[in-house]
Amino acid sequence: MKLDTFKYGFGLTSMPADPLAEYWNLGLTKALRHQGWAKTDIRERIDLAAWQGFVDDLSRDPYVNLRWKGMSWLALNDQGDVEDMGQCPMAQGGAFNDAESMADRLRYYDPLTQEFLARPDVKDFVRAWARLWNIGAHEPILMQITGVRGEGNVDPLQGQGIHADGCKALSILVLNRENVAGAANHLYADKAGMQPLVDITLNPGDILHLCDDRLFHSVDGIEQLDSSAPFERFIIIINSRFVDDFQNRMLRRHFPKAILNKSFGHSQ
Predict the structure, then answer these.
(1) For the whole model, what pTM was predicted?
(2) Which pLDDT does position 151 carry in this prediction?
(3) Least C-beta-crowded within 10 Å: which of 28, 70, 103, 129?
(4) Which residues contact 42 (CB under 8 A, 6 or more apart)?
(5) 181: burial class by Cβ within 10 Å (0-12, 13-18, 19+)?
(6) How many CA atoms lie within 13 A of 182 on its CB side?
(7) Which domains can be identified in the chain, with CATH numbers?
């Protein structure tokens, strides 16, 4: 069974059924509302193998060692189509990001490739994700592909620890997980980690949705299972409705007509 909340246009007219109406599993929105997080998978919705191929297009992260990353700012237009908004730096204030290499800095990354963004299953994913979170036209959506590869052990968060990303809507989709032990996700009700909620290990195609303004999260370190081969773990992070004023100031500067979170100044 699929999520009835998103159904419309069935049986009453000759209009075609909404292709995104059954994108998410039954009860997903209810779980998000009740507990602030929900896990599902979208392996039947996307060509996961094709998406995995785009990790090879990523550049080395210039701010964090052993990480590769690309990101693009997207938005729905008035017709509901996905558009690339152009460049804006990532900006996370120290209240949300404790890592010395990232906190209170403007960080610039290469955009995701147009070949990736033009894929119908990528556009459907962004539209369905926006619908899940009630993201409207002209609201900036940050979509990142990021990950680590190498040998030995590595902290995928690179010093962030237990943290929030400074937004209201956040989802994490695992693209690949090769020769990896660890990397379990942990959710908490508090930043100190004294109120743990759940531990989740995500496999390729699994997606974790978080109300980022209600919860905190962390990820375990990654260990190389087979020492004769390198490890690799890449994820997609997609988020919107930023509560971090630092990020919102950058968004207003680069996208003056964008609709930002209502709590930020005169963003509307």
Answers:
(1) 0.88
(2) 82
(3) 103
(4) 23, 125, 173, 205, 207
(5) middle
(6) 17
(7) 25-254 (2.60.120.620)
Amino acid letter, 103: A
CA distance 224 to 185: 17
Angle, CA of 260, 163 and 200, to the nearest 5°: 105
Rounded to the nearest 10°, the torsion over CA 112, 115, 116, 117 is: 80
Task: Give 10-residue mean pLDDT values along the chain (268 residues).
Answer: 36 58 90 96 97 96 90 98 97 70 81 98 98 97 94 65 92 96 93 94 97 93 89 96 95 97 58
Task: Tell me the β-bridge partners of 141.
Answer: 74, 240
Q: Which residues of 197-214 are buried (b: 16+ CB within 10 A; e: fewer)?
A: beeeebebbbbbbbbbbe
d(CA 123, CA 45): 11
Do 146 and 235 form a contact (C-beta atoms < 8 A)? yes
Distance CA 124, CA 127 (A): 5
Q: Is 191 helix (H, G, I), strand (E, B) or coil?
A: coil
Q: Can you list the positions of beta strands (E) in the chain?
A: 37-41, 59-60, 67-76, 82-86, 90-92, 105-107, 141-150, 153-154, 167-178, 180-182, 185-188, 196-200, 206-211, 216-219, 222-224, 231-242
Label residues 2-34 b or e (16+ Cβ within 10 Å = b).
ebeebeeeeeeeeeeeeebbbbbbeebbebbee
C-alpha to C-alpha distance for 141 and 6, rounded to whole angstroms: 21
